[in-house]
Design goal:
The chain is of the alpha+beta class. It has 8 helices and 6 strands; from the N terminus they run αααββααααββββα. It has one domain: Nuclear Transport Factor 2, Chain: A, CATH 3.10.450.50. The protein is globular and about 50 Å long.
Length: 283
């Protein structure tokens, strides 16, 4: 796995330097002046597509009514679903969420499955943030989320990656890691769900499924903000009365089918990034 994988860097970062991830973010050239986000890339739905959609909804509704009104005690259906894995919802459990933080990162998680999942989700958000592109904030993040015996090594590896002018150029940033004038750099992770793979004593393995927004918003951007989907498996250890990362593995997806929506303009995307703050996910 290359160093950039924990941030979801895509093809534009992967080109020649080995720092990019295995994601699907692609660099797109503007398709029309003043709108690098492809405002004209997708047109409105055609009348035939709208008709197909309406018919599909009607068919589903009829099927649902028939299922609800059919006879029998439903034992066969119950037997069929009994063997299916059940989702453990990432929702309020009644336990108090963490109330402490280190810098801007929530810390002090419970020594249980819920605490491990919350830690993995929040650490994903921190590791995928734009702050990772500045030296001091990056060091603070690494020291907070990684186990002490791992943090020093990761700091060195990430410093080498983020100081590479070629790497920064491939993702559209200046050599000092800042966005070009008139553009806004976006790097944000939004967890969709978490899953405990294993939990035993002071170690845990947690999967985080998330979507990643990455790119540059601005009229002159040739690397517009796009979304990618990943699942990262974090190996956690209970160190100093908290969960800390010792290792991770990332893979693509699951990736949903894209809707037929028109991409926003550069101005709208910039405003959204500046006006909407991110969340923490501790329960």
């Amino acid at each position: 796995m290359s160093l950039g994988d924990e941030h979801g860097f895509g093809d534009s970062a992967r080109a020649d330097d080995g720092y990019g991830g295995s994601g699907q973010t692609r660099t797109r050239l503007p398709e029309r002046a003043g709108d690098p986000y492809g405002g004209a890339r997708r047109g409105g739905r055609s009348s035939s597509r709208s008709l197909v959609t309406v018919v599909g909804v009607v068919v589903l509704l009829i099927a649902a009514i028939a299922f609800a009104n059919r006879g029998g005690d439903g034992s066969a259906a119950q037997d069929a679903t009994r063997d299916q894995p059940r989702t453990a919802p990432t929702a309020a459990s009644g336990d108090r969420p963490v109330r402490t933080k280190t810098g801007a990162i929530p810390t002090g998680y419970a020594h249980d499955a819920q605490g491990a999942q919350s830690a993995a989700a929040n650490y994903s958000v921190a590791l995928g943030s734009a702050e990772m592109f500045s030296t001091d904030p990056r060091h603070a993040i690494v020291d907070t989320v990684y186990a002490p015996d791992v943090a020093a090594r990761r700091r060195s590896e990430l410093d080498n990656a983020y100081s590479s002018e070629k790497f920064l150029s491939n993702i559209g940033l200046d050599k000092d890691g800042t966005a070009p004038s008139g553009q806004t750099f976006v790097s944000r992770i939004i967890p969709v769900g978490t899953k405990i793979i294993s939990l035993s004593g002071n170690t845990a393995s947690v999967e985080v499924w998330y979507t990643s927004l990455f790119g540059l918003s601005g009229e002159a951007s040739t690397n517009p903000v796009s979304e990618s989907w990943y699942t990262t498996t974090y190996q956690l250890a209970w160190v100093g009365n908290d969960w800390k990362i010792t290792d991770f593995q990332q893979k693509d997806g699951p990736v949903p089918v894209g809707r037929d929506q028109k991409a926003s303009t550069a101005d709208d995307m910039t405003k959204a990034v500046e006006e909407y703050g991110g969340f923490t996910y501790a329960r």
